[in-house]
Fold each of these.
Amino acid sequence: MTIQQPNTFRSGPDESGHFGIYGGRFVAETLMPLILDLEKAYAEAKKDPAFRKEMDGYLKNYIGRPSPLYFAERLTQHLGGAKIYFKREDLNHTGAHKVNNVLGQIMLARRMGKKRIIAETGAGMHGVATATLCAKFGLECIVYMGAVDVARQEPNVLRMRALGATVRPVTSGARTLKDAMNEALRDWVTNVESTFYCIGTVAGPHPYPMMVRDFQSIIGEETRVQMHEAEGRLPDSLIACIGGGSNAMGLFHPFLDDTSVEIYGVEAAGHGLAKLHAASIAGGRPGVLHGNRTYLLMDADGQIAEAHSISAGLDYPGIGPEHAWLNDIGRVTFLSATDDEALAAFQLVSRLEGIIPALEPAHAVARVMEIAPTKPKDHLMVVNMSGRGDKDLASVAEHLGGKL
Amino acid sequence: MTTRIDKRFSALKAEGRAGLVTFLMAGDPDHATSLAIISALPKAGADLIEIGMPFTDPMADGPAIQAAGLRALQGGETLTKTIDLVRIFRKTDTDTPIVLMGYYNPIYIYGVDRFLTDAKAAGVDGLIVVDLPPEEDAELCLPALKAGMNFIRLATPTTDDKRLPAVLANTSGFVYYVSITGITGAAAPDAARVAQAVARIKRHTPLPVAVGFGVRDAARARAVAQDADAVVVGSALVDALAQSLDKNGKATKTTVSAVTDLVASLAEGVRSAGRVAAE
């Protein structure tokens, strides 16, 4: 008897860490033995019920999960179409989805006996989450952050310092997320024996894209259960912003095989796709950076371009490799939103729902404003409200010229 | 198949001395100066020449080589120009091996097959691509070997006896031992540890072992040359070049000699090392 393989979008990556042609392990030899160790340690932890149990305890009692699935009634009325739900990752401890992944990685680091944790951060939410869990578990924490981002996300810099972390401003390149990641990799190469690199998104060398996805998948798993409780069925569409893409992957992955569910990722179009932006799918092509092959913004000679977005968390010239693959096979539709559109969405959600969103998910809401009105009233749409906007108030006020 | 690299190491062995491998960034600070420097290296005492292919995001390099790459890119250096630089060098020097060193993305975007064809035709003998470990051999290493190019692999202090066979499997030409865990330009390791590491690698391979990272002067070069088959110097040369530039980062009359003087002194150090008889 032949067994028909189920047609699944959820089986990646393969053993060498590839999603189609994307992913892989493009790192210096110094790091390779550690990456292989990490892969092994993660595989063991995944199979260990004690690891799962301990993590579930912290997810509930420290992070505050499950996060609510909230019916955004006034936004729904305002747009006059699809019934819009927010998955409230902004209500997690530390204020964003980032902490789901950090908890998993820090528990893994402890299992591996690593005492020194490094991280890169853009908007600072991943840095804050890492600093938080390092404080909780008594680990040394060093966060690399582009000097531009240090300036535009000052509240998060202060939070990290209050938590006992060392924030190292990075002054090379465009002084944003990409450069912070370069500097974190340089630190890792230098301190490979003692150090665990806590990557903040579904990118980097295998096993990071898979591991971060697994830790973030709780977002989609909860959404599935909560939507069944609220509406007795699956959602009709999912939408999330994408920088590296961890909040989006966390929401999308558990639904990939539910082909009735439309899935939208929203990249940052900055000043516009014809100008400076951070939309690697829309404006990039496959290349190799930071340990993986994926869509990247670059020039004709393969030199990496500088991204731009008003949102520090989306200001990166690449995207997670699994997203690149989901784009190519057509399972996820990638859209984009400009700085101005995100600012408008930021204000709309704040005033209609009493929720100040981070600029990152405001990009997703910007596209919701367009898509929702075209859908029938029984269309169930889930937006990943991936983080809270307190950190962005100063830069929003500046962009609106005091009209906030 | 015997390559220029194989021939050069055989000749060094016959002379009973270690070789000097110099690293400079192509196009640093501009294409013409870079060509003048690289053309002057063999006479100054370089036995093997590594040429960096500039990249915007050199994850394994320290500040000196990062800055060199940025100067080169600002000066308009491209992979096409770098290959051209080798072609011009080869018109006057058919013996000194040339190794291109860098990161994968510019090669991937140029096109692997086209790159190998053009580089080989220009007279490139080997490649070192920092972000291509053995796990990614299908990308460039295997096609390069097939094209008759040496693919030189880095071994590091984290490359233990279990890992070494994987690293050495498709390595040819020589093994480049990175003597510290760290980025280029970082502090030097102690000589005893280098000797131990070289001996360990040699238990696994008959290939020559070149040692780099942290060699800044003749004394240090001499010490490393006691045990290694070749000594690699990069950041110190790049620093010497950088210090010779004017305040706008442009080449001056002393730029070429700033590099070649240091190369001459390093070569003297390497040549004065009393070699422990090979094997």
Amino acid sequence: MKEIFSRDIIKLKDIEGTINGICIKLKSDVNQVLRRKGGVIGVSGGIDSSVTLAIAVRAFGAENLLGIMLPEKDSSPDSKDFAELLTKKFGVKVIEENIGGALEGFQCYQRRDEAVSRVIPEFNPATDKMKIVIPEELIRKNLPPVFYVTVIFQDGSEKSVRLPMNEYLQIVASSNFKQRCRMSMLYYHAEALHYAVLGTPNKHEVEQGFFVKYGDGGADVMPIGNLYKTQVYEIARHLGVPDEIIERTPTTDTYSAEQTQEEFFYQMPFEDMDLLWYGWENGYTPEEVAPVMNLSTEAVLKIFKNFGRKKKTTDYLRRAPIHDYPC
Amino acid sequence: MKEKIRNFIAETTFVDSSTIKDETLIFDEGIFDSMGLLGLINFLESEFGVVTDDTELQEENFGSVERIAAFIDRKVAVAS
């Protein structure tokens, strides 16, 4: 019998049971399937990597984990403080690997800034900041998102321009060096220690394709990959993740200007998105969901269609290399 | 015009053009995503000289081959 749709429907009924279930499977996967003795985790000071680390401590013990901070010049300076706060709290050894040199080598910043300058010629990367956004007024038009680059000039003024395809692709492709450099460094340490890489994406990131293929999507296991963000926060509180981390607004920590995950990708508060995704995924009708969400049936239907489209168009990201060719 | 639009969509997405009817909802059906929309905006500009304003980025203008063709017609009429 299907539970009546409500705002509480995704709250964990047995939080200890859920955590223990994840820990048992995680330990079995890493030790028995992958034959590795522990794990490395990229710690950003964000909620997802914090919860992944907290769960992993319970599964493996702090002595079998290594936290790695992976800053570069666009990283928020707060990230390091939060990552240190977290690892100290859980007794996990943490090291810092600055990936800025590798990114310079790949010309990550140069390639990105070239593309930005083609659409906003007055952009000066040395003094101005940039980010990619989806303007709010375009969000609920039942079309896939179109991205804008916003430059925040030194004097605080801003300019936003819709990105043509080539410039958008170049900015994304060059920025993705960041996640891929982080992945390479995580695997270096994982292999040197005979550990596994513990990935940190949550359910939405995995299913909506909000990750970089072979970047933050490159990992051996993803312990929170089946948890809604609401549940990630519930577990964070239960396991004692520091309040400062829980209260931070989730950002992408990718571009020089701070950019929330909501403005870049999700387009709605995570509390709403969790419920709507749950409703969509579990076959609730827009008529059942709309009153609970304080939305019209038509609006819910549009959101459901958008979810379906997002999942379909991001299949490429979740697909492993195709190798079943004839011999 | 509709054939040009259909062929562009088919070439961009590797979908058989015969499956793209005038009224097929190209975004709802998952034929086109963000990249498709960006490419389509470029295509309308290069092929028909139609520049899309931000306010015109609506399903009513881009949702299907027939809607795109009607959008182009309106824009060309206004320009002339």
